[in-house]
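anyone seen this seq b4? input:
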Amino acid sequence: MLISILSLLKCNSGVLHIYIMTIDLEDTKPFTDKSTKFLDELVRKVNPKSFVKKIDATEIFVKELPKWNMKSYFTPCSMLRLYLDRVSEIAKLDRILYMDYDVVCRGSILKFYDTDLTGVEVAGILDIYGRRFYKYHGILKRKNDKNLIDAREEKEWSILKQDYMNSGVMLFNIPECIKSGCLRKAVDLCARRWMMLADQAALNKAISRRKLMPRRYNEQEERPRKNTVLHHFSNNFKFWPYFRVQKVKPFEIDKVHHVLKIIEYDDILDKYNKLKNNL
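predicted toks r here
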């Protein structure tokens, strides 16, 4: 999380209102007040109007527990994005940009954040793997599909409809999400059935109106492109010399250097090494 915030501060000098959702359960340690205070002071040094605020979502999480997915591949915290509309401070906002802790910012997020969300619940980016296998709102493309707005510059030709988004970076239209109840539907799905990618699968099932954004706002390949704005260190499949899932996170600096061969984030990683003990 510290690396994500440092990268945001490097590339965005404007006002940043950062909310950190956390829970305090038996197997899950909450984000501390000490860490929150440190991050808040860090962002205010760049812009006094910015802030970092911790939101303890334990009560609302336990009240509607996603019980069938508590022991999934990912931690329970991965499902906290499904409760955004239950948090009073967030529920009154026009929009909120959700980012996983393993996203590194490489440019201004303002254009993405200000994108037109008229008529859609969420703007997101196709999942690099899932888009080929999952279609939740029809299989064949339709010329007049009012539920899917494709705002990508580079569109992969296909007669099949690609609508399966990665949940690591999503721009939520909060009023529309509340109106449609899509987040509540997603929580209900996680409570009733097991899913391999619980939060992502539930969101894709529950969201009926979406806007597809260019991949530069959620690049999931192991190496970023020149125009990448948000680089998401998601898991990647490797097939040679044997099949495996390659998992490298930005704070695993040796792996970033030697496995991914990435050195362009070294200035951010150096700051991370100097500051991480404050958390």
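The chain has ten helices and eleven strands. The chain has a mean pLDDT of 94. kinda curious what u guys think
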